[in-house]
Design brief:
The protein is an all-alpha fold. The protein has one domain. The chain is 69% helix and 0% strand. The protein has 3 helices and no strands. The radius of gyration is 17 Å and the shape is elongated. This is Rubrerythrin. GO terms for molecular function: metal ion binding; oxidoreductase activity. Pfam families: Rubrerythrin.
Length: 126
């Protein structure tokens, strides 16, 4: 929050919607297309699945944004997500653009998690 990333609840939701929409429509579909070119089938499948997830997130954030100005709009309870254990392994698709994209995705998702956690803390205070 000290970095100035956290704003009003509406601004935070608009930022989240924009980010999730970009990931849904552009970033992850592009990563999937590159993975297909690099013959990285598992990565293509993963990126395609994540693109769909990001669309679901954008839709949920849109409902949350609408709920700020319309008390009749109810935000559904988020789904329970089981943690995933990540173990050290041989890098997927070494030497390809897909490997670079996999690393970018991991870093981006970690940053989004931190940012959304700060947004949630702000929302809980107001």
């Amino acid at each position: 929050m000290l970095a100035g990333l956290v704003g009003t609840n509406a601004a935070n939701l608009k930022d989240a919607i924009a980010g999730e929409t970009y990931e849904h429509t552009t970033m992850y579909p592009g990563f999937a297309k590159q993975a297909a070119k690099d013959h990285c089938t598992a990565a293509k499948t993963l990126f395609t699945e994540i693109a769909g997830d990001e669309g679901t997130h954008a839709a949920a954030f849109t409902v949350a944004l609408r709920s700020l100005t319309n008390p009749k709009v109810k935000v559904p309870k988020p789904p329970t997500v089981d943690p995933v254990v990540i173990t050290a392994s041989t890098p997927a698709c070494p030497g390809t653009r897909t490997q670079v994209n996999l690393l970018a995705a991991m870093h981006g998702e970690a940053f989004a998690y931190a940012k959304y956690t700060a947004y949630a803390a702000q929302a809980a205070r107001h």
